């Protein structure tokens, strides 16, 4: 089987959520299929400047093909169009202009997809909101699989995306909340989908003491890992933590790991260590009493999963449905909705070792059940096998409206559209598949022939005997946790 | 990795969160989320502002009053050198161009054209400036709206905060009251505890010989007093010994009772005036209230001295009181209440089990029938001693 991963940026130095997600998935699927990555020459997600050379290279033994970005993002134009599309009645032409302004506009990438998608079984697109996913999915047609990585922000309500959500062959969601939101927006319940998420490369034996010595961190501490930004809820975190510091009983220090674009309060118990490598990051998480996730919008917090994988409890912002839902489903984290709740939950974890220990234990199990690599790989492979076995609907994508239709200002403000979707965490436990018995999932069948674009795949024989005989494994072709 | 399950089912995050929220509610009153505060803000506007004639839907009206901003369409001020001679009709345009040299024979149109051209440019720039001003005003209006909106929300938040603080104040006041009552109960228990109970056995053993000696001394003194009385029978009665010279605990109670009885049977006893009874009650309350705390602060010895000094200062009043108290049954009841007050306050009183201090409580020693007697028991000599040691008014 040949798979193409299409993502806006790609590289070892790129630590963005969706980009890292794409790299992990590419590297893990490469054990079972022939994987190629198509991306742009940009490495900065704000400007989309061409910083990396165009052409082919190999990263961790994966062939990566880069295409130039036509123009950098103009922040003023993008801001003006965002304002219009998110908050005013607008037309589809406005939305297309907004998408073009958002970038990374790479017609070269789209024409490559147009030329070569037929050589691949499936093209997996990451991040629905960018140019490459919108135009690329339409170009790839029935081979397009989308990993939306959608957050609850106004972009999800832009009307041009609904046909994409309805037209792709399958959707790989990060969380049940994301699925609920997209299904409410696009009415795409009939599209095969599964809540997968992503695993992480968590070390087996982290060394908290090494971290403490290296960075002179003494006493118990809570850790935040990520960009220190107001949009990530860090200002609120600082206010709340100051309130915690005013109460003398607590002994926790707040350790911040990540680049900062926000003023950090000067206090001996607030330590900013800057950007650290993965080893230090995992050592820090392993040594922390808890991980704090103050973000308002997340489709999946990888760092929260890493904390759970290391048996650390998480304190999340309850305004983020996804994080709150994960805390409830896993029984592995507390959440706060106000300053008082922040202080009390922090104190509860700090002073009740039993609670902290139990939450950590649950977190480790939750990670093992849902986000460990064998589980994630199996979910992908199941979905790919299922799609390979079923015929693709012809012309699944709705045609784009005509010239006149595109210019009618009939689209409601995107923020309003998103606000109308159901909110709140999904508290029903996730359907998790049992861990595969072996460490490595069985390989996918080799691709027999290159199917033509849009051609139904029913002629291909359904794979047989490929499933590992895990405990309690279903015998049907539908992957557990998948929904129709 | 081995397939095992280590989930700790005893932890329920939602339950923990409920408990934490309950604790917060207990500590700070109701805890509102942002959404609730916003909801309350709108409700408050309607409920609170309407009666005063202020628009309740202020924000809504403000929002409606703000039309969607559209930049104004500027009029066409263009005026070029050919504008005067332009026409949509070709032949006319041709004729005008043909006759232009003839026109220029009559007057020079160029200055006119230049002036109009400058004027058109001025008009255009003024219109643009006006449009920019409009846009700025619109932006300011947006800001005002935001400020107003935030003010409403913050005002509501402050209102809630004030309410919470009031609740906390009330709760603290009730706690303070409770503590005061408890302190009073403890003070009474400490100050008015019988001396015999308080003293340790060793001390009482040490005091035995001293008491014997005192008794012998007292009997000698009685004997001499009797002799003096016999000697001065027709003359005035001698003054009793001063309280400073006589040990407080050793004053014999029967004597004191007889002295009081004598005072009550005196024909020249002062009659009680209007309002005197209530004044007396007030004085007693004042003495009672301050005495206990002062005695606690100064120690038991000083307390006794204070009390005696206080009573000495009120010598005349006390004498009047004592005399008046013997006059009627009403007064007897009052005195019984007074004597009851000097006993340890039962815990039921301290913790508010009784609605009124006069209500009998279970186990209240004051409610015993014997306590209503105007004569204090022997075990409480300090409370009654000053009255007996003071000279009574009729005798003076």
Report on this structure.
The complex is a heterodimer of chains A (484) and B (396). Chain A has 484 residues and is of the alpha/beta class. In chain A, 37% of the residues lie in helices and 14% in strands. Chain A has 2 domains: 2-199 and 372-419, Glycogen Phosphorylase B (Rossmann fold, 3-Layer(aba) Sandwich); 208-370, Glycogen Phosphorylase B (Rossmann fold, 3-Layer(aba) Sandwich), CATH 3.40.50. Chain A has helices spanning 17-29, 75-87, 92-102, 107-116, 131-140, 162-167, 176-186, 208-215, 234-246, 278-287, 302-309, 321-330, 339-351, 353-370, 373-389, 403-406, 414-419, and strands at residues 2-6, 34-40, 55-59, 62-67, 122-126, 144-147, 170-173, 193-195, 221-225, 253-257, 270-274, 290-293, 314-317, 333-336, 482-483. Residues 438-484 of chain A have low confidence and may be disordered. The radius of gyration of chain B is 49 Å and the shape is rod-shaped. Chain B is built from 14 helices and no strands. Helix content of chain B is 66%, strand content 0%. With 396 residues, chain B is an all-alpha fold. Among the domains of chain B are: 51-188, no CATH class; 196-229; 277-353 and 371-396, no CATH class. Chain B has helices at residues 13-28, 34-49, 58-65, 90-106, 110-191, 195-198, 201-231, 253-265, 276-298, 300-313, 315-325, 329-341, 347-350, 381-389. Chain A binds chain B through residues 88, 327-328, 331-335, 337-338, 340-341, 344-345, 348, 355, 357-359, 361-362, 364-366, 368, 372, 427, 434-435, 437, 471, and chain B through 1, 3, 5-14, 16-17, 20-21, 23-24, 27-28, 31-34, 68.
